[in-house]
Amino acid sequence: QTITKPPPLPSPLRFSKFFQFVSWQSNLRILVTGGAGFIGSHLVDKLMENEKNEVIVIDNYFTGSKDNLKKWIGHPRFELIRHGFNDDEKDKNMVYKVSHYAVLIIDLPLSVDVTETLLLEVDQIYHLACPASPIFYKYNPVKTIKTNVIGTLNMLGLAKRVGARILLTSTSEVYGDPIEHPQKEEYWGNVNPIGVRSCYDEGKRVAETLMFDYHRQHGLEIRIARIFNTYGPRMNIDDGRVVSNFIAQAIRYCSWNHIAPPACIPFLMGEPLTVQAPGTQTRSFCYVSDMVDGLIRLMDGDHTGPINIGNPGEFTMMELAEAVKELIDPKVPLKIVENTPDDPRQRKPDITKAKELLGWEPKITLREGLPLMEEDFRQRLGVPKKQAN
Ligand code: NAD
Ligand code: UDP
Ligand code: UDP
After folding, report:
1. Domain NAD-dependent epimerase/dehydratase: where (predicted)?
2. 80: which strand partners?
3. Per-residue pLDDT tens digits for 329-367
4. Which of 40, 85, 127, 221 could form a disulfide with 109 if both were Cys (CB 3.0 to 4.6 A apart)?
5. Could you give the CA distance from residue 276 to residue 267 in angstroms, rounded to a whole number?
6. Which ligand is nearest to the CA of 280?
7. Which of 44, 128, 139 has the most ligand 1 atoms within 8 A of CB, as the residue to mutate?
8. Which atom belonging to ligand 1 lies closest to the Cα atom of 239?
9. pLDDT, tens only, 299-308
10. For residues 180 and 191, what is the distance between their CA atoms, to the nearest angstrom?
């Protein structure tokens, strides 16, 4: 492993009340695992705004991209850690074909995987590394479990060695197909332990258990956020999640009508909005800037959690499709397609704890957030908005 900077002041002291007071002026070294991903890169942007923070990112680029961090590369307070590969391995990229559209090319020599031991000196760890979209986490389920279990164990081992505070981004999936609605943190969930989603939801449940065992056994300072569906700019365009799918589908569907060949060719396979049956299942969508704000408040606050971070506005998938149509083009058709196994029928966070303990609640409604995402997707797909005549 590469350790590129000298270690900072003794980290275990940083979080004791007394030393927090004495050392308030010194910089915080913050590790973000999965920092090249969707939420991770927005978190890095926010952390970098504070001049007292030094931010270190590790990522294996399975679903993330260095592009998401390009504005920070070379910044004196930012570090993207890479593994020391031999020269003859430098050109070996891994190519995965994960879905109809998505082919991932992974820049191996530059990647760091949380399933490997990692030696760094840091004060805080935001542990996000883990694919979040079902098509990616189901692609290699054994790897997903390793990431959740071994990856979290390693980050806890690291946190223990250097006395860092560690925050895990857990998920609303720990509630499974919930029988209680909305979901409170006290609810233990209804999870299929042997289903196709279990690598992710059971993986995160074990990760939460590990966090609490390290807390109880070794006195680690832990924070657990249970994140509900989050959306916004920089989501992988073809990652299969519902908001990104609907927006990309609507833009592609409309674009081939008014873009001349050859520019329209990539969009000719454009499909209608694919609402997975029955379409009455619900989700609650949180805009990414609200999410990042909640994560930072949780890390810097006094409560271990688990705390739900999400937007309680609840929508059926049919309602979401209608909202996207209304935004992009009312003529885009919908198609009901087959669903995947174990799809939760309802999901909505009870955020009383986040409000009371963190003073946090989301500010951006779905109708305010969707246009921001449309703008980003149009830019990346190269399809400008049609000017009204
Ligand atoms: P993402 O897939 O965009 O980001 C995950 C990042 O982790 C990627 O950059 C990926 O390359 C990296 N990664 C994956 N496996 C790794 C490994 N073994 N070693 C190192 N890096 C690895 O996902 P996201 O939406 O940004 O989610 C971030 C975190 O939030 C995840 O832990 C996810 O479980 C959690 N979460 C997200 C949502 C959501 O709606 N986006 C909901 C609930 C929980
Ligand atoms: N670990 C790590 N970086 C560190 C310290 C530990 O990656 O700085 C890993 C280590 O490889 C081990 C895991 O974290 O697999 C758990 O470490 P811990 O010290 O808690 O347990 P032990 O090594 O005693 O099993
Ligand atoms: N979904 C859909 N069409 C799509 C992709 C997903 O109707 O093209 C539905 C899916 O069945 C689920 C919901 O949208 O009920 C949310 O799925 P997503 O994969 O975004 O997140 P998760 O299932 O992890 O909440």
Report:
1. 30-310
2. 57
3. 999 999 999 998 889 999 999 999 999 999 999 999 999
4. 85
5. 22
6. 3
7. 128
8. 2
9. 999 999 999 9
10. 13
Residue nearest (by alpha carbon) to ligand 1 atom 35: 169
Q: Which of 114, 119, 158 to mutate to test the pocket of ligand 2 (most atoms within 8 A of CB)?
A: 158
The Cα 315–Cα 84 span in angstroms is 46
Query: Is 200 known to be catalytic?
Result: yes
Q: Name residues whose C-beta falls within 8 Å of residue 318's C-beta, 6 or more positions apart in sequence.
A: 275, 279, 280, 334
